[in-house]
Amino acid sequence: MSYPRIEVDLGKIRRNTQTLIERLGLRGIGVTGVTKAICGHPAIAQAMLDGGAAGLADARIRNVQRLRAAGMTGPITLIRTPMLSQVDQVVQSCEASYNTEPLIISALAAAAIRRGSVHGIVLMVEMGDQRDGILPENLADVAQLVMQVPGVALKGIGANFACLNGGAPTAIQMAALSALSNRIEGDCGPFLSIVSGGNSANLPWALGKHSTGRINDIRLGEAILLGVEPVSGDQIDGMHTDAFTLVVEVIETDARPKPFPIALIDPTAERLCIVTTGGASTRMILAIGRQDTDILGLSMPVGCTLIGATSDHLVIGTPVTPPTLGSEVRFQMNYNALMHGMAAPDIKVKLLGGPPTRPSGHAQGKVERLALG
Question: Which of 372, 355, 242 has its CA nearest to residue 11?
Answer without folding.
Answer: 355
